[in-house]
Amino acid sequence: MSINSFGHLFRVTTWGESHGPALGATVDGCPPGVPVDEAMIQHWLDRRKPGQNKYTTQRREADAVRILSGVFEGQTTGTPVQLMIENTDQRSKDYGDIMEKFRPGHADITYWQKYGIRDYRGGGRSSARETASRVAAGGLAREAIRAIAPDMRITGYMTRMGAHEIDRSRFDWDQIEQNPFWAPDAQAANDWAEYLDDLRKSGSSVGAVIEVVARGVPAGLGAPVYGKLDTDLAAAMMSINAVKGVEIGEGMSAAMLTGELNADEIFMGNDGKPSYSSNHSGGILGGISTGQDIVVRFAVKPTSSILKTRKTITKTGAETEIVTKGRHDPCVGIRAVPVGEAMMACVILDHMLLHRGQVGGQVGETRGHIG
Amino acid sequence: MSINSFGHLFRVTTWGESHGPALGATVDGCPPGVPVDEAMIQHWLDRRKPGQNKYTTQRREADAVRILSGVFEGQTTGTPVQLMIENTDQRSKDYGDIMEKFRPGHADITYWQKYGIRDYRGGGRSSARETASRVAAGGLAREAIRAIAPDMRITGYMTRMGAHEIDRSRFDWDQIEQNPFWAPDAQAANDWAEYLDDLRKSGSSVGAVIEVVARGVPAGLGAPVYGKLDTDLAAAMMSINAVKGVEIGEGMSAAMLTGELNADEIFMGNDGKPSYSSNHSGGILGGISTGQDIVVRFAVKPTSSILKTRKTITKTGAETEIVTKGRHDPCVGIRAVPVGEAMMACVILDHMLLHRGQVGGQVGETRGHIG
Amino acid sequence: MSINSFGHLFRVTTWGESHGPALGATVDGCPPGVPVDEAMIQHWLDRRKPGQNKYTTQRREADAVRILSGVFEGQTTGTPVQLMIENTDQRSKDYGDIMEKFRPGHADITYWQKYGIRDYRGGGRSSARETASRVAAGGLAREAIRAIAPDMRITGYMTRMGAHEIDRSRFDWDQIEQNPFWAPDAQAANDWAEYLDDLRKSGSSVGAVIEVVARGVPAGLGAPVYGKLDTDLAAAMMSINAVKGVEIGEGMSAAMLTGELNADEIFMGNDGKPSYSSNHSGGILGGISTGQDIVVRFAVKPTSSILKTRKTITKTGAETEIVTKGRHDPCVGIRAVPVGEAMMACVILDHMLLHRGQVGGQVGETRGHIG
Amino acid sequence: MSINSFGHLFRVTTWGESHGPALGATVDGCPPGVPVDEAMIQHWLDRRKPGQNKYTTQRREADAVRILSGVFEGQTTGTPVQLMIENTDQRSKDYGDIMEKFRPGHADITYWQKYGIRDYRGGGRSSARETASRVAAGGLAREAIRAIAPDMRITGYMTRMGAHEIDRSRFDWDQIEQNPFWAPDAQAANDWAEYLDDLRKSGSSVGAVIEVVARGVPAGLGAPVYGKLDTDLAAAMMSINAVKGVEIGEGMSAAMLTGELNADEIFMGNDGKPSYSSNHSGGILGGISTGQDIVVRFAVKPTSSILKTRKTITKTGAETEIVTKGRHDPCVGIRAVPVGEAMMACVILDHMLLHRGQVGGQVGETRGHIG
User: Fold this and answer.
1) Cα–Cα distance between C361 and D154 in angstroms, integer?
2) Radius of gyration over every alpha carbon of chain A, rounded to an integer in angstroms
3) Inter-chain touch C358–A353, beta carbons under 8 Å
4) Residue D208: closest CA among chain C residues belongs to which residue?
5) Closest chain B residue to D227 measured between Cα atoms?
6) Which residues, other chains included, contact D39 with Cβ-Cβ below 8 Å and sequence gap of 6+?
7) For residue D235, which residues of chain C lie inside 8 Å, CB to CB?
8) What is the DSSP letter of C98?
9) Which of A223, B361, C150, C369 could form a disulfide with B3 if both were Cys (CB 3.0 to 4.6 A apart)?
10) Alpha-carbon distance A210 to A155, whole Å?
């Protein structure tokens, strides 16, 4: 019932504050015999590292991960894996002003009200920095998936920045790694660059929509009715800082369709497995994977730490105004892409293990045969 | 790690199939001394009971709840409360055709693939009938909330049916109980009635958007970073049959706003508590309640059981077509309204108990004082 | 975090009071495809049924179990299995006296202090009757084990009644079912019969020691360091009413041995598997099964409901005396034998599923090979 | 369902291997506002530190704890507390021989069989070194208890070393800290010193019995029927390395008593609270605390790492012999005393929080009043 943990069998507990000595993830339940080392985890961490371009916070963090336990001679042992990242660039001086004032739209006020104490430095536990722990754990999950289901691919990208959406007709998987926005649409990337430049200069910020797709996921993963694959994915994504909405497949638009349009028709594929005419379901029916792509989408609200003046109150209840001077992300959604991928990896690995436990057999094996 | 359970301290496990002898909810962790009897739970169950008007399935179920444990002399004792609903109107004959064929958009195929056995009668465990158990548990949660926080109000309503949305300028709380659609807008209710009549006659179905609001929720409920109030609400709503999207406050639209527009400014209210200029946050910041209304929205896809012919396959892998003759809901979203309310009630009660455990004090008390 | 549940993947929640309408077990996580029906569960329940001989309470209960969910056409479906037992013989009148007085050595006073309300009829939730739910769940676990590991045998027996212990040199598996005490020693059974007759007539009661052995358990079950097989067995046995001590293998006596005596030497067996010179470890090393017999022992205290006059207090704090007239067991340990077996079955099945999930492969398969 | 975690609300996950870079405890759910710093935790760690006298392993470890998160300006913040202890004195060379051979009575063989990989250095995860993490977490629990219930006292001591038991008539609380064995009996301490000296020289080892008592625990803690206080204590103690038996109050001897002897009679104390004629129950009835002392006892088996030659096998299945040369404890039970105290502290704090959550009110407040 740990509140800083998620997962059934692959269980991740993150810990640490933005400006404490370190933060990390305690991962329990990773299968034994998974080849992994610090460089492999670092590879994934580097993708979310701040300060890599002018569109993300200029905070410079080495974000170097250390594996403190659970790995021996290059393989996981089945015991807890401790992934630690030390905080190096803290600059607490930047944050003096928020000691007394609450930033509108920020967790400052609720943490204070609930706990009566808060580590205000850099947002403490509520800082986007906590997501580094998730990405480290997700990196481990990816290596475990690679060992169990080598053909699986988990890819995230941005589909919307503020008012500007990608054009699906220009969708190109290869573009994603080619621009700072993880955009699958080169044209959109260019437009966003210009748009975000202006926003940054004006000291404002903007929201974004991220889509994460898992390809090569076998049918049969998920567990009705509260351990559904979509239920766990919704929780995983909603738990990411600043996320306000989560969609599976058709998502909110499903409300606008009729039954005949929304129901994906079923055929037999050439591989002797069921195939579908469409994927409104996002690869999940009744909480269980169909074998189609798993498609999850989430909205990230704009950073509340901005250079614009906002009305607020102090701890003593005095009405005042605040401007957040410290470094910030004009579009925090950019760095949410690797985080969404990490959460998807953790949830899917978890359900692969859960499936083995409950139903037996190996991943990809299901009990019910068709044909 | 029970997969048919949800909740941290107020823990609900639902059980039962659509056409088995009975279904129900095993509720563990209900506080002692809550006044409750079968009539009180029945009141909430009756709101979702099918067959009450031509817009919901004509299946007639008494849906009479029995309390088998945990209540003594009209009060909860702190031991598990077993809420059982017997299935009376089963008509298995209706369902002969789906023994061999999988309904497109339905859990038939994934249950079969995962488990190699499925109770095909009425959808078995994946039937919307499972939500009766949730409403019973939600009824108990409401009585517990009434005992602890009498001023709290949890209300659900429909904001969209297919292409037709309510007009917020006509929003009227009193309308909600006045029409079969739980619409807060009388005009919309009339339009929907006509629209749904045509849909029903044509054998089609349509999706809907439900909004659930909790008023009078104290500040401080919720627990970062994976036991966030919004995380648990997202999981609770996504776990409801046919739900494909969940939003908190501004939801997916938050992606389209700038930081200055999205951040709710803070003032001091006349009651000496913080007050906000707006509620884009949906009453939750950093996973913790602000004291504003908690606003959750979810999209329900159209029923996949329709009279329209759809292409599908059989268990033996033969391609074929299917038409679902049995009774069905043209807009299953209607009956999802009381279900959404029930899930909200369970999650909020759970977090009230969790808050007492972690932080101490009574509900409404917080450790951090402002002013 | 359900407090009336146990198990990781095979998760049992018991519910119900001694004199309520019914009690039972909600079992989540039972693997699909296990052949089971009510008669199979009833077989196990009948072994603990009271009133079968003069040595157990004369309360007459049909203890007829009903399967309300999770089983379809004679097989488990992978959804929750609800096992319900209705209470038929309640005789509440017997219990009038304990409404106001607390029985020494009984949970009456602590339930009252904690909850401020208690179902005093027959001990309510704290009645040994709750164990019927465990035996029903254990029956299901046994059928699942039979399907996965047909050669496993779980057998309980009594090794001590009060001052009288069995003589291990006369140990005979076949005797166990031949006497009302589940004694593996015919001579002891005769002595106990006489001894217990006198005790019963004098209105007293006595404690007992139960030993439960699981034979044919594969090596590799268990999960360090808090999901150890012995940790879960200790919790399972200690949770049984009236149990005050639990031992694994050598148990408390291990404190009296030297390292060379206690450490079981290892050889290679003819079956190509490791074999051991002795079993001081009770089949568990480091929380993981060795492949030897799993041996658990627990002590059951004497029933506190006796005909002897004891000093106590009333709810109003007046000092008084009490004599429990109602029916009672002179040696409640007798009926604890099937309960201990049931708990062992649940824990071992749970760890077989957990092993599949974490390590993969089938039961009996281990990742590390010797030789 | 984390297998390296324990606790309901105060949730401890330990991680780390004997010879890895570090080990520690991730503690989630510690209440906010508890005054704590590294020195306070270090105080408790120093009590179990090895190498303090000739009776414990000569391995020299600084065992310096670092608090990496969850504490700000000398108080807990309600976020996870990461307690890390770096491994300094590792001497891997000592352990060369056990790479290929399995020590009888040790977890070497079962870890290998289950996981197919093991960190053999110093026993890896199964080393008694893991208990340092527990003591650190227990130190935090003690500080939280001090803040909530200042009068509570948790004290452990050794009651038996091999064949030699203490004499209860000489029991003296003040003696416990005066001798290296935590013996409450000065005479026993002297006898044990001589006895252990001979054992150590002969290269043998011996078992012990530890008793842990919690004084000043309020009535009402515990939660039937699987979250019982005694159930959780049994699991906590049995999870400690080398423990083979756990007793509450009268323990195994309860089997030898009659009902009238075992049932503690109840009177009204001068403080207006119930008082008892004796404490056979060990302060727990029906899984809930009575307000008397909580008394738990556990047996620690003799270390299996001894200088005596024992028969065993190699990874390749060859029969051979082994002598463990490395440093070892002749009576590992000595260092188990602070560990038992730590587990008691964690379990009791956890149940104090659970009680607040489920029943409300502050610790010591119960809902049911007597008198």
Assistant:
1) 44
2) 21
3) yes
4) C255
5) B29
6) none
7) 226, 231-232, 234-235, 238
8) G
9) A223
10) 10
Instruction: Decide: helix, strand or coil at residue D205.
Output: coil
* Residue B242 known to bind ligand: yes
Q: pLDDT in tens for each of the 371 residues of chain B?
A: 579 999 999 999 999 999 999 999 999 999 999 999 999 999 999 987 766 677 766 566 678 999 999 999 999 999 999 999 999 865 555 566 788 999 999 999 999 999 999 898 888 999 999 999 999 999 999 999 999 999 999 999 999 999 999 999 999 999 999 999 999 999 999 999 999 999 989 999 999 999 999 999 999 999 999 999 999 999 999 999 999 999 999 999 999 999 999 989 999 999 999 999 999 999 999 999 999 999 999 999 998 878 889 999 999 999 999 988 766 789 999 999 999 999 999 999 999 999 999 998 766 677 888 98
Listed residue (D348, B143, D231, D222) closest to C115, CA to CA? D222
Give yes or no for a contact between C210 and C356, defined as CB atoms under 8 angstroms apart: no
Q: Which residue of A has its CA nearest to B351?
A: A3
D32, D148, D362: residue with CB nearest B367? D32
Query: Which letter does DSSP use for residue C229 in this model?
Result: H
Q: Do C13 and B21 touch (CB under 8 A)?
A: no
The residue assigned the tokens 């704590």 is D36
Inter-chain Cβ pairs, chain B and chain C, closer than 8 A: 156
3-class secondary-structure state, position B314: strand
Spatial distance between the Cα atoms of A349 and A144, rounded to a whole number of angstroms: 7
Two tokens, residue D51: 């190498």
Q: Residues of A near C (CB-CB distance < 8 A)?
A: 1, 9, 29, 31-33, 78-79, 148, 224, 353-354, 356-360, 362, 367
- In sequence order, the 6+-apart residues with CB closer than 8 A to the CB of A40 are A139, A143
Q: CA angle A100-A105-A110, nearest 5°? A: 60
| Helices (H), ranges, chain D | 38-48, 108-115, 131-148, 186-201, 229-238, 259-262, 333-359
User: Which residues of chain D make contact with A11, given a CB cutoff of 8 A?
Assistant: 1-2, 5
Within 10 A of B325 (CB to CB), how many other CB atoms are there? 14
- CA of D299, closest CA in chain C: separation in Å? 5
Mutation to test the A interface, candidates B102, B111, B260, B343, most A Cβ within 10 Å? B260
ipTM exceeding 0.90, yes/no: yes
Residues B237 and B296 sit within 8 Å (Cβ to Cβ) = yes
- What are the helix (H) ranges across chain B? 38-48, 108-115, 131-148, 186-201, 229-238, 259-262, 333-359
Neighbours of chain C (3+ CB pairs under 8 A): A, B, D
Q: How far is CA C131 from CA B70, C127, C138, C226, in A?
A: 16, 8, 10, 25
Residue D356 exposure: Cα atoms within 13 Å on the Cβ side: 25
Contact D41, A78 (CB under 8 A): no
Tokens of D191: 């006898």
Distance from C-alpha of C186 to C-alpha of A69, rounded to nearest angstrom: 54
CB contact under 8 A, B3 and A227: yes
| DSSP string of D119-166, one letter each residue | --GGGGGGSGGGHHHHHHHHHHHHHHHHHH-TT-EEEEEEEEETTEE-
Give the domains, in start order, of chain C with CATH numbers: 91-359 (3.60.150.10)
Tokens linked to A284 = 């999940």
Out of D29, D360, D367, the one facing B358 most closely (by C-beta) is D29
Q: How many CB atoms lie within 10 A of CB C193?
A: 17
Long-range contacts of C290-293 (CB under 8 A, 24+ apart): C290/C219, C290/D109, C290/D110, C291/C217, C291/C218, C291/C219, C292/C264, C293/C213, C293/C214, C293/C215, C293/C217
What does each C-alpha distance from D269 to A209, B146, C313, D266, D276 come to in angstroms? 66, 37, 11, 9, 8
Give the largest Cα separation in chain B, rounded.
71
D5: left (phi over 0), alpha (psi -120 to 50) or beta: beta
